[in-house]
């Protein structure tokens, strides 16, 4: 199943209600352990299903998203401290070793530490690169973290990736579709330089207009 023209939804307004969190933003395919990747996808799936109606929800349960589908990128954000703890646990090979003297022999037993748990996902994004354009299909923040600048940080990171890769991979623009009534999302995108270029009636269903927004990177020196 390839990503369709899903709503790139963000609940964060232009001006956060509280100070922004310090985040760590990860690329899903940078996870080295399969069980951590699948646990991360499961977390994203739960947020997706709580946020979007079934007709607009993307299937993040597909394990192939971990070892990247062609030109498909999944990013996720965690709180900086949470990410540091998880990273430390994932690289640790700590074992508990006990040596018991018993007559002339010594008996050793080794207990391997439990597998590390994935850090808690608080936001995620999915985009596909096609013909020099990054198509942003998903940008979503978990409900407890909305209105706190998380969506802005993740969107800024996505845009920064396209700028840094532009010379080598030819990305000239970022494009997305958003429901006309998602005013907070539209404000956020507009504040980051996106321009509304097209309106499609009934894009998300009867009476729900879709707006195509584009951020041009060609000639941008950033």
Automatic annotation (TrEMBL):
InterPro entries: Acyl_CoA_acyltransferase, GNAT_dom. Residues 120-218 form the N-acetyltransferase domain. Transmembrane segments: none annotated. One of its GO terms (molecular function) is acyltransferase activity, transferring groups other than amino-acyl groups. It comes from the Eukaryota. Signal peptide: none annotated. This is Acetyltransferase. It comes from Ajellomyces capsulatus (strain G186AR / H82 / ATCC MYA-2454 / RMSCC 2432) (Darling's disease fungus).
């Amino acid at each position: 199943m390839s990503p369709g023209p899903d709503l790139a939804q963000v609940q964060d307004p232009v001006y956060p209600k509280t100070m922004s969190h310090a985040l760590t933003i990860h690329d899903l395919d940078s996870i080295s352990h399969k069980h951590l990747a699948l646990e991360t996808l499961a977390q994203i799936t739960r947020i997706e299903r709580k946020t979007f109606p079934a007709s607009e929800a993307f299937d993040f349960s597909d394990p192939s998203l971990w070892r990247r589908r062609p030109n498909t990128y999944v990013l996720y954000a965690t709180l900086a401290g949470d990410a540091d703890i998880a990273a430390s646990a994932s690289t640790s090979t700590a074992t508990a070793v006990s040596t018991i003297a018993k007559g002339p022999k010594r008996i050793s037993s080794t207990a391997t530490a439990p597998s590390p748990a994935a850090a808690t996902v608080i936001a995620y994004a999915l985009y596909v690169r096609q013909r020099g354009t990054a198509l942003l299909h998903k940008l979503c923040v978990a409900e407890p973290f909305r209105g706190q600048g998380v969506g802005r940080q993740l969107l800024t990171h996505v845009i920064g990736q396209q700028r840094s890769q532009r010379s080598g991979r030819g990305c000239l623009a970022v494009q997305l579709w958003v429901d006309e009534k998602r005013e907070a999302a539209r404000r956020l995108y507009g504040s980051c330089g996106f321009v509304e270029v097209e309106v499609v009636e009934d894009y998300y269903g009867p009476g729900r207009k879709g707006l195509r927004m584009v951020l041009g990177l060609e000639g941008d020196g950033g």
